[in-house]
Protein 1
Amino acid sequence: MTSHGASDHCGAAQWGLHGDITLHGQALIQGLDLPLCRGWTCLLGRSGCGKSTILRLMAGLPVAAQWHGTRRAPDRIGWMAQSDLLQPRLDLLGNVTLAERLAGRMIARDQALGALQQVGLGALASRRPDALSGGQRQRVALARALIANAPLVLLDEPFSALDPVSRSQMQELAYRQLAGRHVVLVTHDPVEALRLGAQVWLIEEHRLIAQPALAQSQEKDLRDPSDPQLTQAAAALLHRLRSAGAPHPAPTPYHKGCDTCG
Amino acid sequence: MRLILACIVLIGVWHAVAASQMLPAFVLPGPPAVVQVLARDHQLLATHAMTTAQEVIAGLALGLGFGAATALAMMLCAPLRWLVQPILTVSQAVPVFVLAPVLTIWFGYGPAPKIAMVVLLVFFPVASGLYDGLRATPQPVLDLARIAKASSWRELWLLRLPHALPYLGASLRVSVTYAPMGAVIGEWVGASKGLGYLMLLANARMKTDLMFAALVVIVAMTLTLVTVTDRLLRRVQM
């Protein structure tokens, strides 16, 4: 398997990230060649393997690592982080429009309300985030990412802190709402990667390795999380992750709020 | 509630010491004597209290305005940050009260040097507190601004400032406890009005009971200011 495996599926990809990433003088990712196709691209790997670094580079965000290469990205990017980044002083409507207001774009109230309705929270528009559950909060974060109509949406483990039921529901919601866009999802959950990914990349020994994705049983709907084919493939991936050994020569100490380390 | 209880205990101790006749009444008048003066001279006390209160309010408003503007400007302008940051750090070690005589020389005997004193007392905690708060906004939150390619002004207004408000609140709570003291010290140095002036006047004429009455008014003013500020800040979640 070579790192070029997945690019065959979508030909000349419009966007992508190429190059080498080093951290503290040591290779983090060598020969990175990540073309982004329409639909979901999942990056799977253990903590510290550099998957979040790839995502942050793709987003144009600062990282602790050095990177030499090329980045092709659209002007507008949607972003969902591990934490929902909801602002406690703003109501849900204010939170949904925050990214757009930061960009200096005016947003109609109806449009913001529509985005909240799309994630099923239209009735709570004037609530504050502290009145919501973790799953609801991530739905607001999804609405905030949806509203910019960005062609590329980057997700940094946004579902990892949710309970299993909320997580699977959130995956389905995000899959429906982000249909037709380019989506990159960083995750350490093989089930999640296989369930959502049209392209699945494993980060192993400082390289990106294409994995066979599961064909979706239906175009619109995701497989059930307990689907035997899914669980079997996920188990095989998990086994592979486990046997790969330490992901990083000098593991970066992880601390909360440090997205560059994941 | 606990504040009221603490005041009652304090007054009780004061009364006990004064009633024991260990000290002559012109050195330590008891609470009844002071209450008598408060009732008799309430008009005099109110006039001077009004002067001091005006100085305090004006100083607080100006100090808050200048302090907040400085912190915001420091965030937007790197050279200013480079210049002002060490001053803010050092200012915390300088006892601003020692400047009172200098301020009187510069600004005369009117309300200006007292207001300036309060401004200095408020400015430094507000500027450094708000600046620290603006800097302390979590990186993942600031990522939102970078993704949106937000201008530094928008990042400041929409993300950093809301995160810094509790820091500003903490600075204000500290500032208002010092503000009346600042005005009174300014009045000690040279004034013709105000509670500080009244205290010096009473002191010179050995009217200790009037001095204590002025003291009571200053304490009441400070406690009121602290309580009102706290209520207002709580209401806006600061």
Protein 2
Amino acid sequence: MKHLKTILALLLALMMALGCLAGCSGQTGEETTTAATAPAAVQPQETEAEGNHHVELLRVGLTRANDTFNMTTQGGAFGLMNYNSFCAGLFWERDENGDVQPGAIESFAISDDDRTISITIPENLYWHDGVPVTLDDIQFTFEYGRDVLLSSSLANITEIRREGDRTIHITFNEQTSAFAFVNGQTTWAKIYPKHIWENVEKPSEYTGADATIGCGPYRFVSVDQDAQISYYEAVDNYWKGELTVDKVSVKTYASAEALVMALKNDEIDAIYNYSGPIASTLFPTIEGDANLDLGISPDPGNYMLMFGYNEAPSNDLAFRQAVSYAMNYDVFGATLYGDYYYTPTRGVIASPNMGYDGSLGELTYSPEKAREILDAAGYLDVDGDGYREDPQGNAMDVLITPQYNTSRQELLARLAAILADNLAKVGIKTTLDEESMTSREAWSARAENGGTYQLYLGYCTSGIASYIGAPMYIVNYTETGWWGTWQDPEYLDAYHAVKAVNNFDDYKAAMRELQRIISEQLPAISFAFGTSSFPYRTDRYEGWINYPGWGVINNKTWYQTVTK
Amino acid sequence: MKKKIIINRILISIGTIFLIITISFFLVNSMPGDPLVNIMGDEEYYKVKNSNPELLTQIAEKYGLNESLPQRYFKYLKSILTLDFGYSYVKNQPVLDVALYRLKWTLLLAVPATILSAFIGGWLGIAAGWNSSGALDRIMTPLALVMNTIPTNCVAIIVLAIFAYRLRWFPISGMTSGGLVGWAKARDVLWHMALPLLVMVLSRSCGNFIHMKSYVTQIKSEEYILTATAKGVKRSRILRRHVLKNCFLPYITVLCMQFGHIVSGSIMVEVVFTWVGMGDMMNSSISSSDFPMMQLCFLITAVCMVLSNIAADVLYVVFDPRIEEF
């Protein structure tokens, strides 16, 4: 017993020593710091003494690691937060209505011929190290992006011309529409400081302390790698207006479940995750808590079923129509969004998106109608095994190919199972393409380069949905590089028309035309239109603006959120 | 002679590590999945693939992905010798820096867990095996069997939900609260590691208990124990002098194997508790086809495994007087 006590004491001492080893390593040696100290406490405090209702520390939780702090990449939590005009000065950002607005720039204009973007910068915009932002930086950003970062969207720049000290004109060749460029780059395109990056040959590998310097409203302060928290503070006198959030901490959690628990336990104030709303199965955990809001908003993105035009029977309109009637949209909606769903319309595009056409009518569930269509089209059960044969009398076993996506794999498998069940009820035999679901290579062979899939289950992210969105996935891959298989000339013309417009009114009209064609030919069907949930706490702060499909952490959070 | 055996073992181990390096390199590089997708991101990859496929070649060249497999293999061997393992495709940081940082945190969790569970499981196993059908045996054996069959991540989630979420005694996840240094941080780290450590100790102790109980039960029925009992030797002396000495050797093997898995054995616990260690890194590097990171992970795991085998051999040579040569 005496020995046992000694051993236990030694073990305890060992553990303490190991703990100290971790603790006494101070800032861990991995920390990147541009300012001297990190905030000592994580509990938020409110600054009301001055009557300004400023939020002293806003605590954001996400699932992306706090491991990459480099303005030229979109990696890690830092990269993700910059989608919200955070440390990075973005050229363009979207507001809560999805409209494109100037970000860190004063204004922009697109020429009538849709070839030139004119950008004007404000007089009092500074980098976080105090150096003024000039046209040198803007010109450098486009050239550096094209020549060093090898951004495909900048490859077609033909001329960069300055006008005075604050305006610059970027001209593209006829292969790039300026309007399409702006829409495609909104939320992502950042301004880079020339004095920092001009001598950096391998930007993605650069880890200098100044790699985080931007001209956005927040300055990177430090990161505690051990705690997986990064800290930021508001820039003094930022040119766009008063910042009501003084400091921000961004903490990484392992999963959406851990995020929800952390939110409930008051470890964080809001959840942020690009195109990653929490699952409807977690809603009951939040509902009923007076201090929490589910953060429900209409989801611009959506899950959809695409038909392969290179294979039968999915290239047959009658078959597609029958499938559209065989699908039980209530079950799909409840699976995807809990109680927060609504039946999709026939145009694939979800309602929050610009140009949405609600007049096309909802998809309806009617197995009887599906059977009628299949019977009329010659899909009959000739051999009496309970499943239909194709019009030539051959056995039919339709392949369901879910997109390869590790984070959505379970949900896509559930959708595939429901679809298989729905189709079996109208006599269509299906098989799940499990290989494509679990192997990127198998999926790539099946889906890419003129795919050989029949029924394809995919997802349109809220980011992609903001410009053209779901219809882009449908069009033949030679146009997009994605996995679409449809080469219908009418649809291609309509698709090109969307890409050719140079203003939002024309864009909306062109998008409606695309939806009309989709509603008639049904190259794709939405499983459900729904909502996305990015929960947040309501007990301490107000003024949150919930962007559809994005959440309350967005480019307006920094100016609107105040203490109660 | 014993010295010769140990040197022999070390030389064989070096050869084993070289073989593992070679096999793991070719395995990793023949894995499905284009690393360019992860380097560039899905959306950019498909856009470039359509609009500017030459750019894909340029980017592949930049990361050395266009070189032949043998070229890459010799480059990799050279990188091991110079300890320059390159940059992570995903994290854009030197993989060695990332791995060493992660290794520190994994060891912080795994070393105490292995040592504690070795003592707890071993001690309980001896007690239950020595007094078969006693109260401890009747309680512990089914409990250990049940615990041994429940996946660690399941236990981790249950423990997390009860002690961190419901009772709020411990933090939900992470390794420290942030903004702390010195003793305050050390205390905070211990507080954060309590639940993952508990899960690992619980799970491993049960395994160790079953092993040790079975060794004791088996040795108890040996004839030399019967002889000692017949000679009137005290039970406690039989346990110390005869049973424990003989149980110790197979138990060393079990423990050394656990040390071999020290880096990769806590993946599930690390993922559930957001413990930023090697397990979590292995998991993410595989799913993102981050070849340089994967290769280093496999190398570290292999070295640990080989070292633990050497340790087992050396301990056998030291403790077992019967072993003079293999």
